Amino acid sequence: MKPHRIFTSLAFAIAIFSNCKGVRNISSSGEAIENIGTFWETKNNRQIPSVVIPEKAWFHDSIGITQMCGFNTFETDTGKTITLKTYGYRFVDLKRKWVYEYPVFSDTAQIKRKYRYTDTTILVGGWKFDYRKPSPSDSVVMLSDTTINDITFKQCKTSYVFNDVRWQGMGLFRCDRKKTNFQMDAALSNEVGCPLVFFKSSLMTDPRSSFSTEIKFISNNLPDSVIRVFAAWKKNESTYPIQ
User: Fold this and answer.
1) How far apart are CA 61 and CA 72, in angstroms?
2) Which residues contact 120 (CB under 8 A, 6 or more apart)?
3) Separation between Cα atoms, residue 9 and residue 32, nearest integer Å
4) How far apart are alpha carbons 131 and 186 in whole angstroms?
5) Per residue in 113-165, pLDDT tens?
6) Mind listing the pLDDT tens digit for each residue in 96-110?
7) Exposure pattern of 225-236 as b/e (b: 16+ CB <10 Å)?
8) Alpha-carbon Rg of the chain, whole angstroms?
9) What is the DSSP code (8-state) at residue 221?
């Protein structure tokens, strides 16, 4: 057996949402999403997902929490097995630019790591709440609107060069979510006037393999189980400030 460990910036683990009564001194207004990354491969002239990695992320009062996950691939002579793995959660204070990392999503979790971040800090894994790097696209062509599951999307096709290789992409924008804190490309979203919520890219010369990422909106209200985590981890900022 030949193990290969691959970590990606997109990942999934299920956070438990409950209706338990608890924290009432903090507003439940916020955002919860899944950011779904998919690796596609072509079989029998059809593109099918080979690896799907959904991760959850939450935003509340200038604070973001995201899962950080990856996957392990084990290859044998008869095939391969892929398992998803959560390796932590990142608590991001966007005002202070402080980061706290935790091993589990719990109000009793112990801090694993803490540090400041800047615009050039490389955050491995999870949703990048402060990521503002513009799209490398040198060509953006708007297409006609499309409707998926009764939701109308603006769409575009793009072209760009990465590592001296030409890539092509297709993006979808949701204009009914203009006030969201979650968008894939701030510059491109601002240019279109709606947040980019889906993007799929592939090599221009060989589109048989591709990668897509999609924002799936879950709720604008956070349950008590999530609010308790925000409250506890905010308290840890005061107890264990970053010097």
Assistant:
1) 34
2) none
3) 18
4) 8
5) 999 998 888 888 899 988 766 667 788 999 999 999 999 999 999 998 888 88
6) 999 999 999 999 999
7) bbbbbbbbbbeb
8) 19
9) E
